[in-house]
């Protein structure tokens, strides 16, 4: 069965190609994001319609069309569903996706760099009261069972 591989500085993710297509297709059905449809077409094209492996380096995607960047959400969704295997480069081990840890970051975590004073100034300037909820500030972090960070996404809350 062909494989879909995605490599970052921290880890290499390997999924059965069919799982990647299935997860992406169901996402397209649910949210109808046009870029996801383009990404699916791209995956089909680059695997000769699922006949051969695809390997993607995270760094290379920055130079590609914007819709290829949606791949991080595909990886996130695959990991959330416990699909595939992750190779943690720090421990040099393969870990089934079902064994990796997942952490949701709250809006405030993403703004750890802001001290209380800065936040208060921001609140004042933006005319906000109570807890600040910055859009797009939540996210998902995946860690190996030894706590090494493998992957993170910034999840837009819109
Ligand atoms: Zn590790």
Question: Which stretches of 5+ consecutive residues score pLDDT under 50?
Answer: none
Biggest sheet strand order reads: 3-1-2-4-5
Please tell me the overall pLDDT.
87
Instruction: Please state the overall shape, judged from the principal axes of the Cα atoms.
Output: globular
Helix content: 25-40%
Order of secondary-structure elements: EEHHEHHEEEHEE
Oligomer state equals: single chain
Tell me the radius of gyration. 18 Å
Number of strands: 8
Which ions, cofactors or small ligands are bound in this entry? Answer: zinc ion
- Pairing-aware structural class of the strands and helices? alpha+beta
Counting DSSP H or I runs of 4 or more residues, the number of helices is 5
How many domains make up the 3D coordinates? 1
Largest sheet: 5 strands, mixed
Please give the alpha-carbon distance between the first and last residues.
37 Å
Strand residue content: 25-35%
Please tag this protein with its features.
5-stranded mixed sheet, binds zinc ion, 3-stranded antiparallel sheet, alpha+beta, 8 strands, 34% helix, single chain
Describe the protein:
By secondary structure, the chain is α+β, with helices and mostly antiparallel strands. The chain is built from 5 helices and 8 strands; from the N terminus they run E-E-H-H-E-H-H-E-E-E-H-E-E. It has helices at 17-31, 34-46, 58-61, 71-80, 116-126, and strands spanning 3-7, 11-16, 54-57, 85-88, 93-96, 101-105, 138-143, 149-155. The strands form 2 sheets. The protein has a 5-stranded mixed sheet. A 3-stranded antiparallel sheet has the order 6-7-8, covered by helices on one side. Helix 1 (17-31) runs antiparallel to helix 2 (34-46) and helix 1 (17-31) crosses helix 4. The structure holds zinc ion (ZN). Zinc ion binds next to loops.
């Amino acid at each position: 069965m062909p494989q879909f591989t995605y490599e970052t500085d921290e880890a290499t993710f390997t999924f059965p190609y069919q799982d990647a297509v299935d997860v992406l297709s169901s996402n397209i059905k649910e949210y109808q994001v046009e870029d996801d449809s383009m990404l699916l077409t791209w995956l089909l094209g680059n695997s000769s319609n699922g006949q051969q492996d695809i390997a993607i380096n995270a760094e290379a995607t920055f130079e590609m069309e914007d819709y290829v960047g949606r791949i991080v959400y595909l990886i996130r969704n695959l990991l959330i569903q416990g699909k595939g295997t992750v190779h943690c480069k720090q421990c040099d081990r393969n870990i089934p996706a079902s064994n990796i840890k997942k952490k949701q970051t709250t809006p405030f975590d993403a703004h750890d760099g802001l001290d209380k004073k800065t936040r208060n100034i921001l609140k004042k300037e933006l005319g906000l009261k109570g807890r600040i909820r910055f859009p797009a500030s939540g996210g998902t972090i995946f860690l190996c069972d030894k706590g090494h960070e493998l992957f993170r996404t910034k999840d837009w809350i819109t």
